């Protein structure tokens, strides 16, 4: 994939972007990301319009950000530039929450003049208090392969924002599970395989009603996630995990880096070390990458949507460095940078909420490592679930592999005795060879997906072990050895 960066000169920023943000809620149509003095007096109103329900029943999975997506949720008046919306609308349905029909007309006019693909836009009329759709928006889960919404209690006394997941569920015909837990989307990151992380803000905001173990149990019941809660990094601020960390895939975490002398310098280094010592869902230690974020920059606050990564830029000399970190860390993705009214603890991720594909092909596979493989063919065991409900195409179930960077070949997977489970065997290779591989599947809905999501550019890798001789090879070796011994004896006998 080519890389493309949207850089705007400082003069262009003030000429073009300021008019775009003239109607933005950070002027007069939105409450700030932090609690106002007035709201601090109304904390007892948090969740007054929340509707609780029992937890879902069945196999529950909370999808990850990098999984197949079809859309993104934002709010009008805007907190993001039109240029970002235009880029998102190339591939995704941009759902804009508007308070009135007049706001919808205003948004449509601005979108049209700003180059947004209007065929990829839709609107939901519902009043809101702010544009932090990440924080108050829906959390998406799959229950027995059916997409649904988990609605947490938004941690602000903002009743309009708090009921947006209900409005979206009604509009899209999705079941909404109301979870009686005060939480916020920016303080929750999931790796899509049964584990998620937050800072201890979730414990502190619920400690009047719930113990830490009860919070953990609720996250498991509603999201299907084992829960890791981490101590604070900053001495103040909103304490959201997306202010300093981001999952890039199930085993890779991007962690903020700051200059020595910064109040969080030692804590961030200790946290990066701690995470690198934890075991991921793929039974591997996390790979922790660092991204330098001097004061005023929130480079971890990006969003992954399909094969694009949208990164906030700050007119800083470190913008290009940050983009290169993403380039190096995420091969095959298109890395796009955007200027905006971003803050040190708030940027693109906070103001957008991705929407997964309800009919996605979910491919679950624990990649082979050097320690997993032995002599002989290499088994690739995979679980494939077609959430579309359409049959898989048997001849599309493939393991693509390459040896030492050579051309790609493939083997077809076959079903096992277990439901949704398939296996394919990469042929045995010469010991020491580097094997790269990825899994591909398609179903009759027309969806084609790979594992890892980006396919060949970020393929799984392992080193082929030395090969053990077969019985036939041992027989040949023994025969040659016996002949050699006989020849040596004959020569010695002749010499004597």
TrEMBL record:
<protein>
    <submittedName>
        <fullName>Agmatine deiminase family protein</fullName>
    </submittedName>
</protein>
<dbReference type="Pfam" id="PF04371">
    <property type="entry name" value="PAD_porph"/>
</dbReference>
<dbReference type="InterPro" id="IPR007466">
    <property type="entry name" value="Peptidyl-Arg-deiminase_porph"/>
</dbReference>
<keyword id="KW-0378">Hydrolase</keyword>
């Amino acid at each position: 994939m080519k890389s493309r960066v949207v850089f705007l000169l400082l003069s262009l920023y003030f000429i073009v972007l300021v008019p775009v943000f003239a109607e933005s809620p950070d002027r007069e149509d939105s409450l700030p990301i932090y609690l106002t003095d007035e709201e601090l007096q109304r904390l007892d109103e948090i969740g007054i319009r929340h509707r609780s329900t029992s937890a879902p029943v069945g196999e529950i999975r909370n999808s990850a950000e990098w999984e197949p997506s079809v859309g993104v949720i934002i709010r009008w008046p805007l907190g993001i530039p039109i240029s970002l919306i235009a880029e998102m609308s190339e591939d995704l349905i941009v759902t804009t929450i508007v308070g009135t029909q007049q706001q919808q007309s205003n948004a449509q006019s601005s979108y049209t003049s700003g180059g947004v693909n209007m065929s990829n836009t839709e609107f939901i009329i519902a009043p809101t208090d702010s544009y932090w759709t990440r924080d108050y928006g829906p959390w998406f889960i799959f229950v027995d392969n059916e997409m649904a919404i988990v609605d947490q209690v938004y941690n602000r006394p903002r009743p309009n924002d708090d009921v947006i997941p209900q409005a979206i569920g009604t509009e899209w015909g999705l079941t909404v599970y109301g979870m009686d837990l005060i939480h916020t989307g920016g303080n929750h990151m999931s790796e899509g395989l049964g584990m998620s992380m937050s800072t201890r803000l979730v414990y502190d905001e619920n400690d009047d009603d719930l113990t830490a173990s009860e919070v953990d149990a609720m996250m498991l019941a509603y999201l299907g996630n084992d829960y890791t809660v981490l101590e604070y990094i900053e001495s103040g601020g909103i304490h959201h995990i997306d202010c300093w960390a981001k999952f890039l895939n199930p085993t890779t975490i991007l962690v903020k880096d700051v200059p020595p002398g910064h109040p969080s310098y030692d804590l961030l280094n200790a946290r990066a070390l701690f995470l690198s010592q934890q075991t991921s869902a793929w039974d591997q230690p996390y790979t922790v990458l660092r991204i330098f974020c001097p004061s005023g920059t929130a480079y971890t606050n990006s969003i992954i949507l399909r094969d694009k990564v949208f990164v906030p830029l700050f007119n800083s000399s470190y913008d290009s460095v940050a983009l290169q970190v993403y380039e190096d860390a995420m091969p095959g993705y298109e890395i796009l940078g955007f200027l905006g009214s971003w803050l040190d603890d708030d940027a693109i991720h906070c103001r957008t909420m991705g929407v997964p594909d309800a009919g996605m092909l979910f491919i679950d596979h624990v990649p082979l490592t050097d320690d997993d493989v032995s002599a002989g063919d290499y088994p690739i065991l995979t679980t494939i679930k077609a959430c579309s409900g359409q049959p898989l195409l048997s001849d599309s179930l493939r393991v693509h592999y390459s040896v030492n960077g050579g051309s790609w070949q493939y083997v077809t997977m076959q079903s096992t005795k277990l439901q949704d489970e398939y296996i394919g065997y990469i042929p045995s290779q010469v010991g020491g060879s580097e094997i790269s591989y990825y899994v591909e599947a398609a179903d009759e809905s027309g969806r084609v997906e790979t594992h890892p999501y980006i396919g060949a550019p970020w393929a799984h890798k392992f080193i082929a072990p030395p090969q053990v001789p077969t019985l036939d090879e041992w027989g040949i070796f023994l025969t040659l050895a016996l002949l050699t011994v006989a020849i040596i004896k004959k020569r010695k006998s002749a010499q004597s």
